[in-house]
Amino acid sequence: MLVSEFDYTLPEELIAQTPAEKRENSRMMVLDRSGKQIHHKHFYDIVNYLDDSHILILNNTKVIPARLYGYKDTGAKIEVFLLKEKENKEWEVLIKPSKRVKPDTIIKISEELSVQVLKSLPDDGKWLVKMIYDGNILDILHRVGNIPLPPYIERKMTNEELKKLDFERYQTVYAKDEGSVAAPTAGLHFTQDILKKLSAKGVEIGYVTLNVGIGTFRPVKCDNVLDHKMDSESFEISKETAELINRAKSEGKKLVAVGTTTVRTLETAFKQFGCIKECKSASELFIYPPYDFKVVDKLITNFHLPKSTLLMLVSALAGKDFIFKAYGEAIQNKYRFYSYGDCMFIS
Known about the structure:
The protein is α/β, with parallel strands linked by helices and 347 residues long. The protein folds into 2 domains: 3-63 and 169-346, QueA-like (3-Layer(aba) Sandwich), CATH 3.40.1780; 67-145, Thrombin, subunit H (Beta Barrel). It is 22% helix and 28% strand. A hairpin with a 2-residue loop joins strand 8 and strand 9. Helix 6 packs across helix 7 (320-332). The radius of gyration is 20 Å and the shape is globular. The relative contact order is 0.20.
């Protein structure tokens, strides 16, 4: 199977640069797989599609302010993108422009934070650095860091305006555990009011945590789908969520996953353990057609980039032809695409 089979052309004006004025007012395309029907709704209509025969599982990861801007002692401006925390204040990062740094280069971010470059890593442009600071790193990042928006979001706003908007809207309302460098964007449409309405209808709600990594931003560079390797992303399933899923599935209820990260968490756990149980692990699971889903029945998801692993995942669930028909209709009807865009409910 070729990666080029998952390509499509998207008019640039359909790439959402800002979130909807109200989270729940985003448009929602409903894909009825049984009848191969497509319906055009808004996200607040999700309440009409779920009832006590469903359980809803969401990813409660929280985005950290992972994009840092600093300067070398020469005055050269350097961007440091935090990817993964290691031990002893060491992090895996991306550095831009990387040609301007070498081992032992010091990048000053602020009076309370500097970054010492240790070495380049043999992993697609990554570097190992040491963070120089006193106190709590997350507290410091919230003062000096920036929310790491995807590269296709290009807006002409002041830094303070960006921070104010994105610190609020590039997080889900239920975000809890900090550790991601990208939001689980399907969850951005939920409000506390919608969650309360779903609970009132008997929909049981559970949470998993998968810390979204840089692989979300990166395109598939190989020609053959089978040659692609997913970045490893850590995840956690609590005892309460595992018990909820197992009980609900034994009762014949349908599991609705919110976002591809939730799908990969649950399907990885089942593959690793043969069941859903309390665990801390990591996922490198690459889901593409044909794939036999063991846990997930339905999916709420955004519209994804051409030739991306996320587009391949939704094609595995809904069928590639049906997905591409839906994407064509979304373009025709001027849906908003990608992280701040509209969503799809694969029913």
